[in-house]
Amino acid sequence: MHPIYVVNNFGQFNHLILRMLRDLDIDAKMIKNDVPVAEVAESCRGIILGGGPDINRAGNAPAYVDTGLPVLGICLGLHIISTARGGSIRPGASGGFGGIEVTITDHDTILAGYPDTISVWASHGDEVAEVPEGFRVLATSPICGVEAMAHESESIFGIQWHPEVSHSVDGSRVYENFNALTLDRA
């Protein structure tokens, strides 16, 4: 079975994503974001685009979105998905670091099993300004209009908050749901 790749976009929590996957007994490996796209497409069953400080340092990560594999973007990973598919980002009006309440408006596959409101940990400066065509918003918060989004027909998901941080209640559920989506590609 191929592992899930966690793409390191130089974010402070990328190693926590890998640690959470390993704690869940999910086979995962961290890769740099400059690994050739064809190599990534052939050697994993799903891609998690981790966070980072600057979308200009995303390397090949935008091209990973179009591999046909399930993709989950966290924080900057959400922004990479958005811009790669024609959406846009902007500086958030309330960027920062701390706990927030998120309202889930669509319990799509990636957010299956969560209640309508959850407490999560946010650490971001930018946010999705324009959702790309073919995507729908799954969750919002008082400080961010796009806390989560999903593609209508492809297994591509983006989340603004950090489920891998212990302050996010039941954060492991996001990764368990994503893993389930990848198992038929093992």
TrEMBL record:
Record domain Glutamine amidotransferase: where: 6-178
Coiled coil: none
GO (cellular component) term, any one: cytosol
Pathway(s) this gene product operates in, as recorded in its UniProt entry: Purine metabolism; GMP biosynthesis; GMP from XMP (L-Gln route): step 1/1
Top-rank taxon: Archaea
Positions of the catalytic residues: 75 (nucleophile), 162, 164
GO molecular function, one term: ATP binding
Pfam families from the UniProt entry: GATase
Entry EC no(s): 6.3.5.2
Keywords assigned: ATP-binding, Glutamine amidotransferase, GMP biosynthesis, Ligase, Nucleotide-binding, Purine biosynthesis
Catalytically driven reaction(s): XMP + L-glutamine + ATP + H2O = GMP + L-glutamate + AMP + diphosphate + 2 H(+)
Cited HAMAP family: GMP_synthase_A
Subunit annotation: Heterodimer composed of a glutamine amidotransferase subunit (A) and a GMP-binding subunit (B).
Its job: Catalyzes the synthesis of GMP from XMP.
Name of the molecule in the record: GMP synthase [glutamine-hydrolyzing] subunit A
Gene name linked to the record: guaAA
